[in-house]
Structures are given as C-alpha cells and as structure tokens.
Please model this.
Amino acid sequence: MVSAQGIRELKDIVGKNRCLTAPEDLMVYSHDVFAERRPDVVILPMTTEEVSRVLQVASREKIPVTPRGSATGLSGMCTPEWGGIVMAMSKMNKILEISPEDRLAIVEPGVITQDLQEAVERAGVFYPPDPASQSICQIGGNVATNAGGPRCVKYGVTRDYILGLEAVLASGEVIKTGGRPIKNVTGYDITRLICGSEGTLAVITKIIIKLIPKPEARRTLLVAFRSIDDASVTVSKIMAAGILPRALELMDHQYIRITEKNFKLGLPVEAAAMLIIEVDGFAETVDRQARIAKEFCERQGAFDIKLAESEAEADRLWVARKTGSVALFRLSKMMLTEDATVPISKIPSMVRKINEIREKYRIPIYLLAHAGDGNMHPLITYDPQNKEESERVDNAVKEIFETSIALGGTLSGEHGIGLAKKNFLHLEVTPAELQVWKNIKKSFDPEGILNPGKFV
Amino acid sequence: MVSAQGIRELKDIVGKNRCLTAPEDLMVYSHDVFAERRPDVVILPMTTEEVSRVLQVASREKIPVTPRGSATGLSGMCTPEWGGIVMAMSKMNKILEISPEDRLAIVEPGVITQDLQEAVERAGVFYPPDPASQSICQIGGNVATNAGGPRCVKYGVTRDYILGLEAVLASGEVIKTGGRPIKNVTGYDITRLICGSEGTLAVITKIIIKLIPKPEARRTLLVAFRSIDDASVTVSKIMAAGILPRALELMDHQYIRITEKNFKLGLPVEAAAMLIIEVDGFAETVDRQARIAKEFCERQGAFDIKLAESEAEADRLWVARKTGSVALFRLSKMMLTEDATVPISKIPSMVRKINEIREKYRIPIYLLAHAGDGNMHPLITYDPQNKEESERVDNAVKEIFETSIALGGTLSGEHGIGLAKKNFLHLEVTPAELQVWKNIKKSFDPEGILNPGKFV
Model:
C-alpha cells in the first residue's frame, strides 16, 4: 500500500495526469501476457529527474517499484507482484540521435522497437533484434529482458547492440554505463548486467544503441519435409556447413495444420515440418547461399521448396510463421509460449521428446522454433479453469524444462524468468550461483524495492 | 606475506613442483608489460578443484590471489600489487571440445589464443578476436581483460564470443555461468560481468566459446595519404557508407618512418598516414567491397594504393603494421601503449589533438589506431630514469585521456584499467558509478583477496 501522503508526494513530482490511481487505470497497467497483479499507483515519468525523484520517495517509504514498457512479456516480468508503483516508461519515447557515422542511436526507453528500426533504416543503418512484438514493444523493455527474435541467429540479441545506458538506481542516483565508443573496457560491464535483469537492478532511462550497416539483399525459402527429424537434422547440418542464415525457423505439423485451417494460405498440410530459411548480405552472395541451403534441404528429403522471387513474396512466406500463433492465442482460453533452448545439435532430440510429452500428457502442443539457435517455442493451449487439464499442462511444462536442461540447454532463450520460471530455476542454477545473483541484487537495491517477488 | 604453514598447505594441494617460492621463479611471475610486483608464492593449478582449495586457504588466511595468463597485458592488471599468491593458469591448457555443429569450443583458460584459432579453423569454424599478442597470450587472460584486436571492428570483442564460464569465487565455491545454448537469458549476465573484470571477481577455470562460420575470402589494401586528416576522414566515411571492413588500421607519419628506417619495407615515407583496409566474406563480395573502399580512398586524396593479389601479399602488407611497434619497443627504454578510444566521427579531432600534444610536451608519439572502432594507440617512448622527461610524458598521457573523454570517448578500448589508468578513472566515472563497482566487488569477494590494489 502507498500512503495518501506518498501519493501526494508522487503527484507533486509528475503532476496529477501522470500519477494514476483510478481502478480502471490501474487495471490497464496490471498485466503482461502471462500474469496479472494490481499496482497501487501508476507513474508515467517524462524525465530522468522525475524517475530519480520517484525512486527517492519509494526508497524512503519502501514502496515496490516495477518498471514496465508495453508489457508484451510472456513470463510475468513487469507485473507488480507486491503492488506499489508501476513505472510505465511509454512517455519517455524520444529518439534523441541517429549517427550512421558513429554507428549508433541514442533513445529513450519508451521508443517502439519498430519505430527505431524504421528510423535507422531510413538513415541507412540497421538494428537487427526483432522480437515478435516489435510493432508495439518498447526498446527499454527489450533491454531489460535482453529480447531476441528470428534474426538473432545471425546477428545476436539485444545485449549485443547496447553500447551504454543511463539508469536510475533504487536510491534515486543516476548512473551512466558504457558510452559512445564501440570498444570500451573501462570497469565492470554494468551495461550487460542491467540488460536482461528484468527491472530488478535499475530503471533504464536512456540507451545508446549500436547499429550496423544494413544488409542490401535477402533471399527467403519455405521448405516442407515429410519428417520432423529430417527438418531438424537439416537445421544442424546447415549451421555446421558454414551458412549462417539470418533466420532459420521451424514449424511442426500441428502448427502448420492449425495455421492452414484458420488462414487458408495453401500450406502443404501433409508436411511433418516446415523450415523458413532466410539469408542476407551482399546481393552477389545471397543467391549462392540460398542455393546451398536449397541443396541441403533436397538432400535431406524436402518435398516442397518455395524460393521467394521478390520482397513481397518473401513477406508472404513469413505469413504462415507469424499468423499461426496469433490464431492459436485467439482460439484458446490460455496459451503458454515456452522458450526452453538447447544446443543446436540437440534439436532433433528435443523435438522427439516434445512429441513424446504431447502424447504422454494428452495436451495440444504446437511447435515453433528459432531453430537456428536452438530456441524452441512449444505453444500449449488449455483451459485454466479446468483443474485436471491445468495439472497435466504443469507437468508437461516441467518435463519440457527438465529435458532442455538434461540436453545441456537453458530454461529461457529469450522470454526471461519473471514469475513463470522462477520455480524451475533450481533445475539449472545451483544455490551458490543463485546466491551470487542475490548478492548483486542486494548491492544494487539493499531495500529490495525494484520489481520484488521475481526471480531473484 | 604468506606464513610457512600457509606455504605447506599450498604445497599439499598442488605438490612441490607447482608451488614456487624460489626468488628466480618469483621474478618470472612478477611482471606484465607495464608493472612489476613480487609475489610471495606462485601456484600453477591443474584442476578446478586445486584452484578451489587454494582459494579456500587464501580466503581463510586473507592472502591476496592474483590470477594471470601469459602477462602480456599493458596496464599492470595481473601483477600482484599486494604480494601473496600469483595463480598462473598456464598448465590448465586443454582444448576440451570443438563442436562446429553447436558452433562452440570448450577450453581451459591456459590455452594459447592462436592455438585455439588454428584448431577451430581446422574444424572449419572461426574465432575472431585477435589481440596483438595472440601467439603467446592465453584465452583466460583474454576473457579476464575482454581483449580486442584489429578484427574486432567487424566481429566484436572477446565478450561477444563467450557463452559461459566455470569460475571459482574467492570463497573457493565453483560456479558456472551461461552454458552451451547460443541464446540464454536465465538470470543475471554473470558471464559478461566476469569478462573484463581483470581477475578481481573470480578465477576462470573453463570457457565455453562461441564460434562462427569461417569467412572464405579476404582482400587487403594498404593506402597512403598526404594528410592524416584525409586518412582519418576516410575512415569515418567508409564506416558510414555501409562497408564494415574486418580491419581498418591507421599508422601516422612518425610510425611509418620509424618502421621503414628499421625494416626497409619500401613504405612511402613521404606519407602523412597510411591505412590498412581489409574486407572479408564470401568470395564474390570481397572484390566489390575492396573496390568501393579503394574509390573512397582515391576520392579522399590517397596517392598510393596497394591491393594484395594473394594471401601471401596480404600478409606482407600487414608487416608494416605489426613490426613497427616491436621495433619501437626494442629501441626504447620504456614504451607506453595507450588505448584511449573515441567515437568514430571524432577520430580526426583526436588525431589533431595528439599532434598538438606531441608538440606541446616535446615527446615522441607514434600513432597507431584500430581506427575502424575509434581505438587509438599512441605509442610513447621515453627514459623512465629521466625525471623531467617522465613528467612531460605523464602530463601528455593525462591530456590524451582528458581529450578522449571530452570527445565522448573512454580511457580504455581494449587494454583495461589495471594499475595504469586507475588514477584517471575519475575523469570518466562518477563516484556513484564507482560505488556500484565497489559494491559488486564486495558482493563477490568480501575479504578483498582477489587481485587487490587495482581499479576497484
């Protein structure tokens, strides 16, 4: 609970219009895709100084503060587990600078990821990370969760594109980390410690983003296989053969069927699996890379290979990949999107095991994967009101995580831990390792006011 | 000082042959390129368990422990400032696994960087970071210092190639961070916190290294300019034009002259500056990239452009870049290699300022730079016995750092802070930021036994 005096102080800092307490406002800021928790008050800061002053009050009064972007997260990372303040960064949404010469952009955290991408591409440079929610998610949330996406197989994740940050500590103190230079080894890497810390260490108020030259061409293939084993073996062979596609996505039979049923795209519903393979780079090389990838697929038994002849056709090939999960989300009462991630060579084993789990627990699992980096996305639909079914789902999810860890994988490739996976952490992390995290958390936030109740 | 009882315990752990106390042995392990400090005892562990047991003794007895690789560092990072134990990792030197399929290698810290590079290239994969000392330095030291090198302009630094670590905390507890998956967002990024921490947080005992496909071709240009301004403007224009060379190195007039004088390579000594521009990738594209780079140089007033027609010729073009600093090092009583780093667009300003500093303090400065990422290497030779000259050098160094920071740069692009730059940290880092580092240090190493007396 925030006291009436506390609310008054917060209103003094940001003004009435950006300090929300009406129940309908609180509801809007109470959930992400996974969880729902009601805050006591929502603050919409517009400056770093406001963030700092709010945190000073929160620190003094020991009020929990949960920073959030667009709340497109899938693990309950930005829901205010212990109530208190939700600090929504959407009004700090300016692109402050784009410098192709220094290969960087400087932005506030509330900038929509796709707006950033379009702005830098107009300037001839490129920001690769492309989380599925890029049209609505905020770059600050991407940094806080170290977001991924299909293109990350070639280009790396959000973490690899952050040169520096301005952030506010729990105490209200403002720090900067890193800076404009591309290379920087001065002191501890606080930039990457805050990146992926899910709002538990500091509130990000400014981001220096590294940019790269924009690839001039891409070629996209959509390939159908009669066996999912053939498809997943193809993935690991392509990667080992020196082709690094900019995307290498896998869809299984269940996913293809539900997508075709809902969208009538003309997909080969007899396929056991499909791959999207996208290569990019200089114009001269994309054709050769596409040809090599095609030959691999043929040798591995692919029976239907579509090679896009234009940008528009390439976009059409992506429709199947992008719409299926939306359809599933709409059709189901609840959809879980897991993201257990394994070494690339273990993809065939992981896929086989997911099929076993589907049978064993009699639940619908639709398998999507950023296969190129072993990042599986089993989508599970169910009715959370049905207790017996929910239990089967819980057990299936647990077994998916156990399998991933047993194969040398991790609980989360890109969605984060948040609330969803904190109870599974012991599978991957030893008590000594968790203690290291807790010590760091304590060193940043001794009162534990930043996003409490989460993974650390 | 380590007590006789302490020495006996250490000998019990690693055996007499790997617990060195003879003065001549201690001398061997007492310096890097920058500083010299005598340890009380040198331990050469062969297993993680030995590292752990040594740290348990050190923790209990509060003995400083300074881990080191080949001590090729330039900032006094691995010299035992407070004596105690030097833990030399050279005997933990096994390549445990190379998996092209999973795009990774697993190695012990004592593996020589070039041995690793050659081994993975034989397997068809590629480890890009290439510090100048790659033929003798150890990969563990590269991780501890987040080492760079010429190829890092395109491929990123050591940090970008570490998937996970095994490390031993000051307490002797063994932790692992990250893992085999390419993508991993489970918990805080301890991997990158330890990377670049200069031995102050943990002793690295195993490294999971990310590999990428090996580029199939490269083209190398050596380009001479009549004005250093033209050369440095060329650098920033090439970068802004969408060409990302795998190396973009600058040498100034002083450096060219001293190199030619000592090695008679046929360099154009009338040049005010030279650039090495190296592009790589698929065979079809390197020619076009090289042509574009060449056109840029011509338009910017280059008067002598050599384009290597073979691998052997490419290697020859690199000779000038690589031998000059060796010559200087041998010819001088003392050579400082600074690495202040600026945003790419500020290279022309930084170069002009270094020329002013050279005049102002009347000291020889030879300028090398990984210009593609703004990483300057002013080499300063002097006689440390000459007090008056040393003072001028100190003042010049200070002004170089101040200039770098004023231009939005950093104290260190790749050489680290260690002892050399700790007195300059206040130029770049606020007390609040330094406190964050100190808090982290304390959370890892409450007794302060790991590499004490350094930057944190």
Observations:
- The longest strand of chain A covers residues 217-225.
- Chain A has three domains: 4-88, 95-213, 217-406.
- Chain A has a mean pLDDT of 95.
- Residues 311-331 of chain A form the longest helix (21 residues).
